[in-house]
Specification:
Structural class: alpha+beta
Strand content: 5-15%
Radius of gyration: 34 Å
Number of helices: 14
Largest sheet: 7 strands, mixed
Distance between the termini: 75 Å
């Protein structure tokens, strides 16, 4: 089927382009819609039904019940009062409504009667010139989806992860949108996971940079290490990424494996591809976490070794200086009868013997790696 063959190209633009897509990380609502509703449209036979003015959710749902199709409503950070009317119109479960309004939820998939409630964590990589102990590397947001038989509602939290560009791409493929709300759910899941893959690639560069700095040779050919706080900050950001990715694997597997009335069979098989990509990113993130643990331990070990090296050098020089200190101490005791005090060459002899002993100790310590 041509629609299914082209599904990936429609909902999955290149990862590089996704990061540079205009409007991909807008932080404001549409000026034309000052309320929490960013867009509300009716789709029939895969095409957006044109209107001469913005529809309210109630008007859109009346059209769907009268003429068929489905309604797609997008909201950005609605409060309880703004969402109450929509929840009542579409019969959304109070627990899911509470989660959608409150936000800060784990990625999950829940079923309430004839509605699927799905939570996605969106991740945006923050470009930076230099990694510091205070660098913010990833920003997180949330997209919550209510999937019904004839409606699809998205609730977005955070200043990034806009779905406007994705909606436009889907509208350019009526054959795909004709599959209904499940096609939109797959497109959003695929879009979010593609963002994970882009962030994982960018984080790989940061991890490689830190690893190179830790193990690159410094003075004397030994690794010079780096600031441990920078490694720890990167590890914190990786953990935030991990909390977004890991819980999502099971919901994607359920969507791909368990038959559901609300998911079109032609679309369901493509959730398997999304689950595979989530598993891949999860493995990358776990690898980053373990590697950063090793890098942090190696960096701390290098700091300990460097301190031991410094102490060994100080000890070596103290041993060398102890010889003239002892000689000067002996000849500074002011006894009347002491050897070599009245010899013509007594002073240069003592100096020469002291210097020879110090030189011998220096060569011995240097040969043993203490200096």
């Amino acid at each position: 089927m041509s629609m299914i063959r082209d599904l990936r190209s429609v909902v999955r633009p290149s990862r590089t382009a996704a990061r540079q897509d205009d409007g991909a990380y807008d932080t404001t609502r549409d000026p034309a819609t000052p309320s929490a509703i960013v867009d509300c449209a009716v789709y029939r036979d895969g095409s957006r039904v044109p209107t001469d003015r913005p529809l309210t959710p109630q008007e859109a749902m009346r059209q769907v019940r009268r003429d068929g199709g489905f309604v797609w409503i997008g909201l950005h950070e609605p409060n309880e009062a703004e969402f109450a009317g929509i929840a009542g119109e579409f019969g959304l479960h109070p627990l899911a409504v509470e989660d959608a309004v409150t936000a800060h939820q784990r990625p999950k998939l829940e079923r309430y009667d004839d509605t699927l409630f799905t939570v996605f964590k969106t991740i945006h990589y923050v470009d930076h010139d230099e990694l510091t102990a205070n660098s913010e590397i990833v920003e997180t947001g949330e997209v919550m989806c209510f999937t019904g038989r004839d409606f699809f509602i998205t609730v977005r939290h955070g200043g990034q992860g806009s779905l406007r560009a994705l909606r436009h791409r889907l509208q350019d493929d009526p054959e795909l949108l004709a599959k209904g709300p499940s096609a939109v759910l797959h497109a959003i899941a695929d879009h979010v996971v593609d963002g994970y893959m882009a962030v994982a690639d960018a984080l790989q560069e940061d991890v490689d940079e830190v690893e190179t700095e830790v193990f690159s040779p410094g003075r004397g050919g030994t690794p010079r290490g780096t600031d441990a706080s920078r490694i720890y900050q990167l590890k914190r950001e990786v953990l935030a990424f991990k909390r977004a990715v890991s819980p999502l694997l099971r919901p994607m597997q359920l969507l791909s494996e368990r038959p559901m009335r609300l998911i079109d069979p032609d679309i369901q098989k493509y959730f398997r591809d999304v689950a595979d990509h989530v598993a891949r990113v999860q493995e990358q993130v776990i690898g980053f976490d373990e590697l950063l643990n090793s890098i942090l331990q190696a960096n701390l070990a290098q700091a300990s070794v460097a301190q031991n090296e410094d102490m060994r050098k100080i000890t070596a020089w103290a041993a060398i200086i102890a010889v003239p200190t002892m000689v000067c101490g002996v000849y500074g005791m002011n006894f009347k009868y002491m050897p070599e005090l009245h010899l013509k060459y007594g002073y240069p002899l003592i100096v020469a013997v002291t210097a020879a002993i110090c030189l011998g100790i220096h060569r011995t310590l240097k040969r043993n790696g203490w200096l």
